[in-house]
Amino acid sequence: MVLIGLGEEFDRINGSENAIFAESEMTAQNLKWIIPAFRSYDASKEAVERREKMQKSLGNLAELLGKKNYYILSVSQSKMISKTKWREGRLVMPCGCVRKKQCENGCEDEVLELTKEEEAEIVRAFENFEKASGEVKDFLRGDAEHVPPEVRMAMKMIQKKEAVGGAVKGLENDLRKILGKCERCGGDMVFNVLQATKYDEKGYLKDWDHYAKWLYGSMSRNLVVIELGTAESYPSLFQSAFEKITSLNPKASHFALGAENFENAIDWLTKLC
Ligand SMILES: [Zn+2]
Fold first, then answer.
1. pTM of the model
2. Of 133, 172, 184, 216, most Cβ neighbours within 10 A?
């Protein structure tokens, strides 16, 4: 049996100035529920390239695991992990996933999977956001040469913040339109992620029960536990939980390729098959 923990490194922020501005604006505008989607849909060239590489690696991993008796426990909320062709019912995402939506007010109706059309529209919304947030007006005309460099830099930052702030508002409008309204209370739907004001855990609880049973069934069996791209943020799900599992089962072994080895782990995964 194989248990694989996929960590938050799969959702690492794109380190560009634009992305950092964008996420700080999302936090400032009380739109934290958009952040995991931004990390999954960010349309900038570097973010797209990084995701393509990881998506390929995950595909290789799924192929290698094949029909083995495995389980994937992911704190990443990303589209690519949910889209990878794992065995049916062998993935649990306790922090939610950007491919599901829920009522913003936490109404107890279904957590819904996004349709293909909704996903395609979300891709377009983030492409528009990428264009809009990149547009910074050129103020360096006319007398601007006489502006001292530090003032010039500060002005540029202010303009950048304004441009990104406006783009985040546009993105919020687009996403709310795409995700639609709750049928019960008429409130807006948001992504079913931990960052939602009222996170609806129904999105993963059924999978969690299944995972817990699977784990219980591993107790006296040969078990390999592998952590990929996990940091210290979720010890109760990964580090302490996995150590406990392996200490109780003499036939279990535990390997961790944590955050600091993440790029190596991805290279290694890419070459697997
Ligand atoms: Zn509602």
1. 0.91
2. 133
